[in-house]
Amino acid sequence: INLIPADIEYNKNKIIQNAKLLNIPLKMFDSPIFNSVENIEDNPCYICARMRRGYLYEKAKELGCNKIALGHHFNDVIETILMGMFYGSQMQTMMPKVCSTSHPGMELIRPLYFVKEDDIIAWAKYNDLEFIQCACKFTEEYAMSQNPGDVSKREEMKLVIKEMKKNYDNFDINIFNSVQNVNLD
Questions:
Q1: HSE-CB for 126 with a 13 A CA cutoff
Q2: Fewer CB within 10 A of the terminal residue: the chain, N end or C end?
Q3: Is residue 34 classed as helix, strand or coil in its secondary structure?
Q4: Is the Cβ–Cβ distance between 107 and 100 less than 8 Å?
Q5: Contact of 1 with 60, CB cutoff 8 Å
Q6: CA 156, CA 162: separation in Å to the nearest integer?
């Protein structure tokens, strides 16, 4: 199942085209999420993500499923860890499997958790697939309004990681492993 991505027809068509290329049955459904967050100034992306997840849980439950799968990959995990540290003053991570606290009996899984972004990009190119970056109006507007060189916080983390890997080959792997090896003493 897939939540219809906003009012951007190109994104919707790209998802349908990819599903056909991969011979994956696809069910899409509407929600008011993208319109609901349009006027939110503080953390619209966070609120939108939470709402999308809630709608996915509800639709999955309605279809008799007990899991939703998200496409977060290895690099997303590293970037999220660093964003939490740099901007939230907290140590947190994404887990590959999480039991929902708000939807009893439902789980969230991240099947691409250990897969690096470059490998996904290579696989997509090999299979003539083109993925959408984000289906929301904020992302489209942000991309159009930014000065050259301005980047999102996630893009900023990508640049930090790239720069650090120049001197520390295993920088990303060490960050990933650090949240599994927390010394509480």
A1: 6
A2: C
A3: helix
A4: yes
A5: yes
A6: 10
Residues 44, 34 contacting (CB under 8 angstroms): no
Q: What angle do CA 135, 139, 140 make, to 5 degrees?
A: 85
Instruction: State pLDDT tens for residues 12-48.
Output: 888 889 899 989 999 888 777 777 777 777 777 778 8
The alpha carbons of the chain give a radius of gyration, in whole angstroms, of 18
Cα-based distances in Å from 7 to 31, 35, 77, 119, 183: 11, 9, 28, 30, 47
Identify whether the C-beta of residue 91 lies closer than 8 Å to the C-beta of residue 179.
yes
Report pLDDT digits (tens) over 79-134. 999 999 999 999 889 999 999 999 999 999 999 999 999 999 999 999 888 887 66
- Contact indicator for 93, 81 with CB cutoff of 8 Å: yes
